[in-house]
Amino acid sequence: MVFYFTSAVLDPAYTIYMGKDKYENEDLIKYGWPEDIWFHVDKLSSAHVYLRLPKGQTINDIPPEVLIDCAQLVKNNSIQGCKMNNISVVYTPWANLKKTGDMDVGQIGFHRQKDVKTVAVEKKINEIVNRLEKTKAERYPDLAAEKESRDTEERNEKKALLNSGRSKLKTFVTRIFVLSVLANYSSLMKTENMKSNQDGYDSDDFM
């Protein structure tokens, strides 16, 4: 089971999701999207919360209001963290999550520590948590199928872009060729480059 939330502080709204337990977290780690940003309470046990960004946006493009929503949600879903003030929440792109065979279920590391960011959470803000909880929806998605569909769509987009580039290049080369031919033809048709029988050559003058 995966829980979905909607952060509607901005338009368009952002989708936030998290697994029910550490076993769902394993699937989320495995089938995350490049657009996903992972959140977790630093140094404490908590839910794995993901923010799905629109294509083209990066971790640096997260609006402050949405960042606060994610941080409040992950804090609220930490057994220890929800009772504490002045905690830190770490977040990083899904692609930076590192999972090795010797790790426990739900445990992860990072490929590059420098790509991990931190946001301070002073205290729980009930207004934010309550707003997000009202949007909560329980679903049983086929994460593998959704990931494959997303990747197939991206491959098709890249293929279409490549074909478009080839078509434009072909059109450009053809245009250059035509212009070159026309330029040569114009040069040949110039008066100084033209000859007539009056130039001393008569094709009917036989010996």
UniProtKB/TrEMBL annotation:
It comes from the Eukaryota. It holds the Pfam family NFACT-R_1. Residues 1-111 form the NFACT RNA-binding domain. InterPro entries: Jlp2/Ccd25 (IPR039730), NFACT_RNA-bd (IPR008532). Belongs to the CCDC25 family. Interacts (via cytoplasmic region) with ILK. This is Coiled-coil domain-containing protein 25. It comes from Tetraodon nigroviridis.
